[in-house]
Amino acid sequence: MELKEVIGRRRSIRIFASWRPVEREKIQKMLEAARRASCAGNVMNIRAVVIWRDQATKELIDSIKLPISYQQMQTAPVFILWYNEPMAYEGERWVKTVSELVETRRMGVDIEQTITEVKQKLAPGFLMNDPKVTGNSPGAIMDCGQAIAQATLVAYDEGLGSCLMGGPVLGRVGRRLKVPETAVPLALQAVGYPAESWEAGGQTAKPPLEELFSEMEYGKPFTSDPAVVAELERDKLIQTPAPLPWRDAELRALAKATDLDTRLWRDDAFEVLPDDPKSSW
């Protein structure tokens, strides 16, 4: 698929083919896509732990329970815990990664001059920064978001589906996976082959372009060009909106075939598990 079609085909998949395993190489491709994402100073603060359902303990799977749309938790064969590692912004490491950008001709023009500027101008500030503050800044979280987005698009390009989830369970999942204490869990991603059709009922409706984006200053809408819309429809970035006429029948058939718990909200998702720490999640 071309990039625009991959973006257009992306859906939050909630009913996976639990009987169909995901090839390890496809997960590796997702991680490689995340590893290639843009990041300030190339410090690469994004981290992840891959969870294979068939290798996980019952306690780990139980810790993943979320209260909303539990279907993906019942059926996904793979989960990825994505987290931010603020210690990637530790001063000396930051100086090193920025210097490497200069040495590989990714920053500056005159290498000697730029290295001198890094050492004399940038390094003192880097060395004084608190990585727990800098590494949790909006920019740092944005870099993690770009990495996760790239991994997500590669999943769809490989024929997979996914659903990104958040909430207070992220902390306890992280503890069970023994991530560092400095880690800041960001999202739990369910991954697998869709049991539902890839359209998943159609493309989710979004607010108008003019409502979301401005030009030159706030309040001056960035107006949509119908010719561009038509081009994006041809390239399949803009697709038929939900709901598709057969969606209700599809959901009923899937629920019956897979014996799904179809509740939207589960009161027991926040239950305290036996090995939860006494402190709050």
Brief descriptors of the model:
single chain; 281 residues; alpha+beta; NADH Oxidase; 4-stranded antiparallel β-sheet; two-stranded antiparallel sheet; 12 helices
Name the helicity range: 40-55%
Report the CATH topology name of the domain at 17-193. NADH Oxidase
Task: Give the CA-based shape.
Answer: globular
Whole-number mean pLDDT = 93
Secondary-structure blueprint:
Layout: H1 3-9, H2 24-35, E1 46-52, H3 58-63, H4 71-75, E2 78-84, H5 91-103, H6 111-128, H7 131-134, H8 138-157, E3 161-165, H9 169-176, E4 184-192, H10 209-212, E5 214-215, E6 217-221, H11 226-234, H12 247-258
Antiparallel strand pairs: 1-2, 2-4, 3-4, 5-6
Helix pairs in contact: 1-8, 2-8, 5-6
Task: Describe the model.
By secondary structure, this protein is of the alpha+beta class. It has a domain at about 15-195: NADH Oxidase. The chain has 12 helices and 6 strands. The protein has helices at about 5-10, 25-35, 60-65, 70-75, 90-105, 110-130, 130-135, 140-155, 170-175, 210, 225-235, 245-260; strands spanning about 45-50, 80-85, 160-165, 185-190, 215, 215-220. α1 packs across α8 (about 140-155) and α2 runs antiparallel to α8. The chain is globular, with a radius of gyration of 22 Å. About 30% of the residues are buried.
